[in-house]
Please model this.
Amino acid sequence: MRSFSMRITTGLILVVLAVLPARADTGAGSELRCLIKPSQVVAVGTPVEGLIESVTVDQGDLVGAGQVLAVLESSRERAAVAVAKAKSELESALKTTQVRMEYGVRKVERARDLRKTSAIAHNELDEAETELRVAEAAALEAKEEHELARLEYQRAAAELALRTIRSPITGLVVERYLTPGELVRQSPVLKIAQIHPLRVEVFAPLAWLDKIVPGMVADVVPDSATSSPYVATVETVNRVIDTANGTFWVRLHLPNPDHHIPAGLPCTVHFHTP
Model:
């Protein structure tokens, strides 16, 4: 009976040890699995509708920020810009009204001097002053019309610019959705991934929560790497714990200036913990 009781007790201890989580190694040399991702991925398109005239890049191309990626057919918009530009540069009406106003000022000044000596009747002075007010109103109207023409030119130029699709970031073309001749309806044309810098994402065990801090250095080894580890820096530590598996999320900053490291690779990260 005593032997049977000892066997039961031993069995219970083994069961308890089996269900307890393994103690995480929090010292130097600790490694975790990770994933290398682009720092950002952008679906590039345009808010206007139109036919694609040309696409200047293809999947796998490296593009710079501001580089032209695609152009929509824009003959009507270019014509509108040309007309608006010409109108905005017309200054004849503005100059004519300005000359008339200056002449009116001189005429009123002379009329007032003559009126002081009664050389002209009062109604002649009134007439000169009225002509000046009309000239001032015409000059103001011409100035406003010139400003409206300038704004119309800016609006037309902005609409034309929307028909040229440029890359908002420096990165790699990972998807090309449309080709010349296809219609764009506020949909993406290309997808660009920024791979300098890269992001390394890790789920670390709860025991490491107070040991991994922003600014900490770590070695990252992609699964396909044949060279030395890459040095990354802890950027963000999410202190909200995933209670389902007892882990927390960490993001590292991994420079990749020569774009040698591909994104999307699984990896191993070695934290330089105290």
In short: Helices lie at 2-19, 75-89, 92-116, 122-161. The first strand starts at residue 31 and ends at 44. The chain has three domains: 22-44+191-271, 49-73+164-189, 76-161.
